[in-house]
Amino acid sequence: MQISPQQLLVVEDDVTIARALSRTLARHGFSVAIARSCAAARSLTQRFDYAVLDLDLPDGNGVDLARDLLAKDRVPSVAFFTGSSDPALVARARRIGNVVMKSSGTSEILALLAQENLEAPESHTAPSNRACGFRAHSGVTTSAAGTAKSRAR
Predict the structure, then answer these.
(1) Which end of the chain is more exposed for a tag (fewer CB within 10 A), N or C?
(2) Distances (CA, A) of 153 to 7, 24, 34, 40, 141
């Protein structure tokens, strides 16, 4: 029996960081949707198992987005992956979820997911040596391990 992969939402406006994080998560068996703005994330209609949000986004901040996603039961919990130099915003984020600084690298996000008991389904279902493809887009992109998602501009 194959278990469906955990559905993760990554909200990150930096394309390079979003792709690196998504590739890492997809390699470990997660299905990943990427939104590059608050508006794009809010436009998605599906429920996710977890969200990893940047704090500094072009149309808002990750704290307000997290509150919206949690209030609308779109995710049960969130973490923040940020390089923000705003200590007040980081402190607000810590009241909602874990904060991982981008300088720590994507392995810290994987460790956090394990700590949150969000394990990939089974190691043999992960796309081990397959390159993950992405569709670059101003709104939402999806890793090859994921399914097609609605796209917002």
Answers:
(1) N
(2) 21, 25, 13, 7, 11
Give Rg (Cα) of the chain: 14
Hey, what's the torsion of the CAs at 68, 71, 72, 74, to 10 degrees?
80
Supply 19's token pair. 């792709």
Give which of 50, 108, 62 is closest to 86, Cα–Cα: 62
Please tell me the pTM assigned to this model: 0.77
pLDDT > 90? residue 77: yes
CA distance 85 to 69: 24
